[in-house]
Every structure is written in structure tokens, then in C-alpha cells.
Design goal:
About 60% of the residues lie in helices and about 0% in strands. The protein is mostly helical and about 250 residues long. α1 crosses α4 and α8 crosses α9. The protein starts with about 20 loop residues before the first helix and ends in a 13-residue tail after the last helix. The radius of gyration is 19 Å and the shape is elongated. The chain has eleven helices and no strands. It has a domain of about 170 residues. The longest helix is centred in the first third of the chain and has 26 residues.
Amino acid sequence: MGQIVKNEQIENDIPPPKNDNPEREARILDAAAALVAHFGYDKTSVSDIAREAGVSKGAIYLHFDSKESLFEALLRRETLTYSAEWLRLVEADPEGGTFAGMFKNILYALQTSPLLRALYRRDRRVLGSWLRANPEIMHQKAAVNSELAQMMQQARAVRSDIPPDVIAHLLNMLAYALVSMDDVMSPKDMPDTETVIEGIALLLEGGLNPPEGADLEAGKQIVLQLATAARQQIEAASFRAFGSDTTRN
């Protein structure tokens, strides 16, 4: 989730939009988001999306070459929405410069999109044949990587006595568990998501902040820099780059 764009695959020569009717395109993407999240990619047809959006099937192809290109445009839009929300939350959070604050805001932002949560856990029910056709997504980089952990350690925003790759691994375990718990537990047996996220933040604050206190400003600048760079890369790239690392330029 913090790592969304695969930088080495960014394509700079993005073709112009096929159609300049953004309101209709937004309706099409809204319809696709609702249908795919509910029925899954394989059970959602272009005709279904057209019917839900209140447009003709032909109108879909004025905007997108195929069902796959429509879905990738949808995932790209969802990612931009996620990154904007993450950036807003970090900027507004006094504790946004700690790993606990950063991670908490990643988890909150991730709640804005069922499709991104499905992508993060590689949900075959939702993503179906699209996932099989894009096997590189199965090997996407983690939401938090060791380079980021090391940068936060160097800025004295994270304790330095835990190896950065261990920090990254622990945080990714928590993120994956949060988006996957409904696969193994009944919702009635789980606390509400906000309470869980706040609990994770408290645990991380106690476990990862340096004993002398975190340098909140230095940490926040690192997080804001990475979040802004990620959004710019997503805006500039085709969706083919979805699913990986934002900490390397």
C-alpha cells in the first residue's frame, strides 16, 4: 500500500485519452468498481458494466479498448484515491512522522478501496483471470520495505536496534493480516476496524519509537516525500506498473 508503483516499468509515452467525456468515464469506472467488488472480475462483463452505468456497450469502448484496460484504469484510479487519502492523513497527523503514525494512516487509507485490499491479498475470487494473466502482481513488493525502515532509523524516527528488514517484515505481516482476517474469522467475532488500527498504532508506538523519543518532523518529511513521489509516479505511469515499490527512484 505505501508501495504501489513499480518504477522500473514506468512508461512515459502515455497515449492521450480515447474520449474527453470524464463524467461518463467516471460513471463507467464507478459501475465497474461496484460490480467487480461484489461479483468478481470474471463474473462481471462489459455488458454488465454498461447496464450498471446507464450507457451503451459501445460507449464503454469509446473510453477503453477492452475489459482488461477498463479494469486497469479502475485500479489506477483507486490507487490515486488511496495515495491522496494517505497523504492527507499523514499531513494532518501530529504523529505522522513515526512508523506507528505512518502505518496507521496506510491502513486507514487502504480501507477506502475494497479492490486495493483484494489486490494486496491477491484475492482470486475478486481478481480471477486478471490475476492469472498478470503473475508479476503475485510477487509485488511489500507495503513497507527495509529501505524505508532504514531511512526512518537514520532520521531517528524509529529505534535502531531492530534490523530494518525485520521491521518491514513485521509491519507487512500486520497489514496482510488486517486485510485477510475476514477470510478466517467471522465478522461478528472481530472488533471494528478502526479500533484494531488504533490498537496496532499503539503497539507500534511502544515497540518502534526510539527510547529517547522519535524525531517527528524528520520522519514526517520522509513519509511526505515518499507519498508525494508515489502519487506523481502513479499519475505519470500506465497501470502496467501497479503493485510495487515507491522508495526507489
